[in-house]
């Protein structure tokens, strides 16, 4: 039987478009009560017993035995050796990518991550002080989805933000280490690394143990156990978003080679059977050409089976009236990755309000952004780009308001604050303002 | 029986300091399984039944009957009339405060909330596009803790960010409306307002109903039901922080009148019996003077009973070796409000890393910041200032990465991306990059 990938064909002109479109987009994070309970138990055990519990769970879940947590720490020498053991092309690629990512995030810090202040006409100082987090934890998945690029994308913004200490955790089932992940940790300047994973690693970072220091924030992707653990420790520490399956939306005017677009659709689909690849295009003949390219290119790919399942189950090729309508639909989807594969990308870009990352023009394949263009590849999924943003320097800083009221300012502000405080029935607030008034 | 407020006296020199200090700081958000379940049921009902469920719960919990949700919408005319019905002093105070808050948040937007981009040497464009959220919901508590200042502090940053529509919900138990809250909504330019509250209001904003539009983010404080509902809808919509009890930490060198500091400690304590007020000071005689001021000033305050319970149960006056040690302890606490009541506030400010807002100098009472200095009064509590920030313009915007790779850029980046993608076993990613290479 030949493998076939046939994304759902839709036209915005069909009477049933709205219903079928909604159905295809539908995705909801299953919360599994059993997982929730197991995770709660693991967190509790680590909080109570520290290292001992982490060692026990690591043996149970990762098949990895150790006498102490020290034995599970990767030394800087090991990380460096992993880097030096790589082929030259991989060493160069990691360093090149790291340099691009670092320089983009430095621009980001300069644009939006610096302290500022001003004085008003009374000499009152108002501002915002930006400081890095003291210590962060980065979760890196082990096993088949072990992505060295994620190490760079999580650790480098933290570094650029000025975070003092970056603790990486990465499970190594049965002791199997991924040299590219270790090398990426070396390149990204991870401070300490432990070969632990799962909910027990999240708990260790959130609460601290005898050997693992408590962090202020935990970022990085993981399986259902890791996601559930991150949600539970949120508040105790900061967390990044809980990611859903990856998505790409391609807006095409028909000017890009169909093979390129087909391959871009594949490159999300190959992540995961639940990943979603959608094409929006006003040109029916081009949609045919993309389907033809899909048929022709699919067999050449090692992950063809995953790609086919993803495209058949969640993919769509949507015929729109025009590019304007395509932009409006893109805003409804608020996709993680949005390619504007058009001769006039800057014509459409201003119409696009919600997306994690916007890739403009035929040359900007999403895969370049995944690895080395510079911007972060950790992006909001499942429509959360309506209200959230790519991971970046801002996520590894926090801001404190700065207020220094002058004596003159205290007179004006105090009178106002007194009125409002009395209106709210908070008399001590009012009195605190009044005490600073000059006696008439 | 005379009311007495005796905050715990501690000295960093005592052998038991560490244990007693930790114990006093301890606070944990109780999760109440019964509340959790009731909230889950309410959310489910609103998601399924829409308006009908919201009306039913509003009748049950707020004792407020209505035929339709339209009857629970406050018109712009009603908001305006509430404003015009206020005494002149209150109208002026609201407008003055709004102008200060607006102008601070405009400075914030200019400093950190604008789009930016640059081109690299290959002509590749990299940047970040900043866009406002389309629609946000603001929760305003009703009843005794109905604070008009919170309306300003939540709605104005959303406005400055450029949010298209701001939907306010405020419960009005038995139909009792707070004219100051309605007036603040008028001054802050709220788009629509509904007299609903509790978990049912959060659900209506998160899912949308026939009459209440779905929002992208919900901010604002509320009781345990509201907090639990916000946590549950997080992911579906954005939320701000879940706030714990309010806190103030005063770092004093002994140069500020003791009455002023005593009143500042009161002004957090009066919020809530669980609020926390702490003084850190290297001058033992000054600590005595503050206790004496507490004794003297307490009886004059209408909320003396709450203040006494808060100070006795959670307050502390801590004698430190010097100001440097006081700063180090402040960083451990990471307080919501941090007053540096010193003759040399700028000497100590650089040592302070973690705080929601920092108030410099004797004239800067925390109450001025609460109402009208300009910065936001929605601040991270319970030590979360280690990793989070005051509410602000950034919370009502989101960022999208912008990438436009030039043909020349695609050659360099493509070669690198191909190596890394192959290393991760993602061949379609690699092929998408290779397809853009010029044939040699």
UniProtKB/TrEMBL annotation, chains A, B:
Metal-binding among keywords: yes
Classification via Pfam families: Histidinol_dh
InterPro entries: Ald_DH/histidinol_DH (IPR016161), Histidinol_DH_CS (IPR001692), Histidinol_DH_monofunct (IPR022695), Hstdl_DH (IPR012131)
Cofactor(s) required, per the database record: Zn(2+)
Binding-site list for substrate: 246, 268, 271, 337, 370, 424, 429
UniProt: NAD(+) binding residues: 139, 200, 223
GO molecular function: histidinol dehydrogenase activity; NAD binding; zinc ion binding
Catalysed reactions listed for this entry: L-histidinol + 2 NAD(+) + H2O = L-histidine + 2 NADH + 3 H(+)
Pathway stated in the Swiss-Prot or TrEMBL entry: Amino-acid biosynthesis; L-histidine biosynthesis; L-histidine from 5-phospho-alpha-D-ribose 1-diphosphate: step 9/9
Record GO biological process: L-histidine biosynthetic process
EC number of the protein: 1.1.1.23
Transmembrane residue ranges: none
One GO cellular component, as annotated: cytosol
UniProt cross-references to SUPFAM superfamilies, sorted A to Z: ALDH-like
Entry similarity comment: Belongs to the histidinol dehydrogenase family.
Protein name as catalogued: Histidinol dehydrogenase
Native organism: Corticibacter populi
């Amino acid at each position: 039987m030949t493998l076939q990938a046939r994304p759902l064909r839709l036209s915005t002109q069909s009477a049933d478009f709205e219903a079928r479109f909604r159905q295809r987009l539908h995705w909801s994070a299953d919360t599994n009560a059993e997982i929730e309970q197991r995770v709660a138990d693991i967190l509790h055990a680590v909080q109570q017993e520290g290292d001992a519990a982490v060692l026990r769970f690591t043996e149970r879940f990762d098949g990895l035995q150790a006498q102490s947590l020290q034995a599970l720490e990767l030394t800087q020498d090991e990380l460096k050796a992993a880097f030096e053991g790589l082929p030259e092309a991989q060493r160069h690629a990691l360093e090149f990518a790291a340099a691009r990512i670092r320089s983009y995030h430095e621009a980001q810090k300069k644009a939006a991550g610096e302290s500022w202040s001003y004085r008003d006409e009374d000499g009152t100082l108002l501002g915002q002080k930006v400081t890095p987090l003291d210590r962060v934890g980065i979760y890196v998945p082990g096993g088949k989805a072990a992505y060295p690029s994620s190490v760079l994308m999580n650790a480098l913004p933290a570094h650029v933000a000025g975070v003092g200490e970056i603790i990486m955790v990465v499970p190594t089932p049965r002791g199997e280490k991924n040299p590219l992940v270790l090398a990426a940790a070396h390149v990204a300047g991870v401070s300490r690394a432990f070969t632990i994973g799962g909910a027990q690693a999240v708990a260790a970072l959130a609460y601290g143990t005898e050997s693992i220091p408590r962090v202020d924030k935990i970022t990085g992707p993981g399986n259902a156990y890791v996601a559930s653990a991150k949600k539970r420790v949120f508040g105790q520490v900061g967390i990044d978003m809980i990611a859903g399956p990856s998505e790409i939306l391609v807006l095409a005017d028909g000017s890009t080679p169909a093979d390129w677009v087909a391959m871009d659709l594949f490159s999300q689909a190959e992540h995961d059977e639940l990943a979603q690849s959608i094409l929006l295009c006003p040109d029916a003949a081009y949609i045919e050409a993309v389907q033809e390219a899909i048929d022709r290119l699919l067999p050449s790919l090692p992950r063809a089976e995953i790609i086919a399942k993803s495209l058949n189950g969640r993919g769509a090729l949507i015929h729109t009236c025009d590019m304007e309508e395509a932009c409006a639909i893109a805003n409804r989807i608020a996709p993680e990755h949005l390619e504007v594969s058009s001769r006039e990308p800057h014509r459409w870009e201003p119409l696009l309000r919600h997306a994690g990352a916007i890739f403009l023009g035929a040359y900007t394949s999403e895969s370049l952004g995944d690895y080395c263009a510079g911007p972060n590849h950790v992006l909001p999924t499942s429509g959360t780009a309506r209200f959230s943003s790519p991971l970046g320097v801002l996520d590894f800083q926090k801001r404190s308001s700065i207020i220094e009221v002058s004596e003159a300012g205290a007179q004006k502000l105090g009178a106002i604050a007194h009125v409002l405080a009395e209106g709210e029935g908070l008399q001590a607030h009012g009195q605190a303002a009044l005490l600073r008034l000059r006696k008439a």
